[in-house]
Design brief:
single chain, alpha+beta, Jelly Rolls, 5 domains, five-stranded antiparallel β-sheet, DUF1587, DUF1588
Length: 791
Amino acid sequence: MNSIPFVRSVSQASRLQPASCLFPASRLHCVLLAIAFIALASSGNNIRADDFAAEVTFREQLQPLLRAYCYDCHGVDDGEGGVSLEAHSMAGDLIKHRDQWMRALAQVRLGTMPPADGEVMEPSSRTRMIDLIDELANAIDCVQNPNAGKVALRRLNRAEYRNTIRDLVGVDYSLANDFPGDDVGYGFDNIGDVLSLPPLLMEKYLDAAEAIMGEAIFTPPPPALFEVDRDAASLIGADKFRGGSSLAMASNGTVSLQFDAPFTGTYKIILTVHGDQGGDEPVRAEVASGRRTIPLEIPENDPTEKTVAFRLGKGKRTVDISFLNDYYVKDQVDRNMHLHHVRVEGEELRSTFVPSSDLPTSHKVLLFDTPGNAKEFRKSAAAVLGRFASRAYRRPVGGSEMQRLVGLAESVHENGGTFEESMQVAMQAVLVSPYFLFRVERPREPSDDGMMPMINQYELATRISYFLWSSMPDDELLKLAHQGKLRDRRVLLEKVGRMIKSPKASRFVNNFASQWLQLRNLDIVQPDTKIYRGFDDEVRDAMRIETLMFFSEVMRNNFPVTELLQADFTYLNEPLARFYGIDGVRGNEFRKVSLRGTSRGGLLTHASVLTVTSNPTRTSPVKRGKWILDNLLNTPPPPAPPNIPELEKGPLVGSLRERMEQHRSNPACAACHNMMDPLGFALENFDAVGRWRTKDGRDLIDASGSMPDGTTFRGIDGLRELLATQRNDQFVRCVAEKMLIYALGRGTEYYDKCALDKIMAEVQSHDYKFAYLIAAIIESDPFQKQGYREP
């Protein structure tokens, strides 16, 4: 062994020794451990000083706690619940088996482990074990450029597609709701990994693009076609006789036809005619409309098209076609005119003659530049399509992309299409492009020193807008991106503040809050209305609106996030207030209502939440407790073990609380139910549709609860106190992680702990204010950078 590396390694190891290694009793152990690591390093293994420090921490600090409280039940060979913690003998094993250790960490954090019949763990020991497991299992250097993570290519979901079309084109395409449903991952329907593109959806996109642009840009109807009807045509001063499919005029006279002109402009009248020659003159005719008359000479034999043009006003118009020079000598000469059919159509650029007041707003906005003549077509097309495609793609459109779009428009124009029709077709192509349907980000590689690359400013603008508005960036965001100002903290915070107060922020409320709080399940729950009278679809809708307006109030006014749990106000209309038993609210309009002096306050007392966490015929402390663990504390319990009967199907008797206690007597059930049930029972004063009660049938409600760690509380007030004050950091971190998942479009990983720690530090320094949570997420590395996906 080379002596210099050995000396350096021993010296480095000594600096990393924990306090226990400074005492003689443990010094020998630490030295032996250091020698073992040095031997591994010299054998070719890449052992870092950080690895040695982690190993010392594991053996000297965590393992003694595990021996005292865990190994008796979770040994090498007989680990209860399939968890054998003692089998993991090195610090690195906590990373290899991170999922198992995260489950253990959740149990320790909640106080369900050690079990009630196990060794009593002092609060200081519990805190120490939580910190050590978290540190070792989630070992990552937050200083040395942690992985920012990578999001799968994300398709716009149904809500994002509809919003983007509305903001881009000016058309509310409600049929987007008929698209195939979006799959859900990590609780949200905007997760890149699950947003596939099945063939049926691609067909829907093609149909939608045609319908949307047909509504956005006005083009006159297809050319009107009049087949001459011998019985319906008005024939004045001439004899008519049947001559196959044509109208034969055997003497001088006039055929009168009417049609509805859809706009004021120039129209072409196209006649298909032929004549029976007789005498020295050709067949002569004239076409008249309004004050203008145009003469025609009609050739004999084969039918021929003859075209004349008139400037006509919008509305019902008459076209007179007259045969002028009849000539007849019995059995010698017979000059006649045959009219086969008439077609009326507007000339090229016909929509330019439509008064501006008759055009839809979307038409005037999209076609801000129109050509004055054929030579200006390409210039106008490039201007219109350049702006449209750049906004649709959320970035400047490339030169080759512009050439293809303008070339497509020119091909439509060369085949007889108007400027408007050419723009319609080219814009349809934009709406089915992957650059529109997907949020495309240019792939990047870390730098040579491992630094995660920043996404560009346009990609950042897109992430921000779809996070807060579920739609494309507005012109101001794109301008800031173009100017490179989106990473200027002052500019960013000002823009985010305006975005939160914008009406478009209601989309964030509808999409994030509805999914986080599971309000979408309100559509499918069916409380038994024979038991819960007064519940109907009107009340169901009002429940949802209450919660969304309440969430919006907290967000827009930059209240602390904890206000979601303990606010003393809500939003009610008369039907919902009557349902709650609150007086003084009149009318169907929702308004802010004080809840002081009532049993209500915060999300946990909203009927929407209480209803979606109940059964049709009774409350469910289990569902309500699980909902709190999942959505407010981010510590979901593991799935129920197999072969455990449902509460109603088990041999249980007594009140609901007594039956639940009997259910928990099964050791397979106790671990999870000891977490869920106390939380759920704290809400028992609210029935299955969220109305206050003091009895469940004949039984008085007992809303007291005791957590496995010994924490006790009573009713909704005690539960609010527990969550909003004692566990406020855990609640806010839960909201932060749920919001980060929604913002990124991917599930969080262990390496996102660094970002979440920074987010929490920023939010804590600003008293948990809501706007600072949103800003901290936007400024976080996972949001600002592009990392990589770990295998």
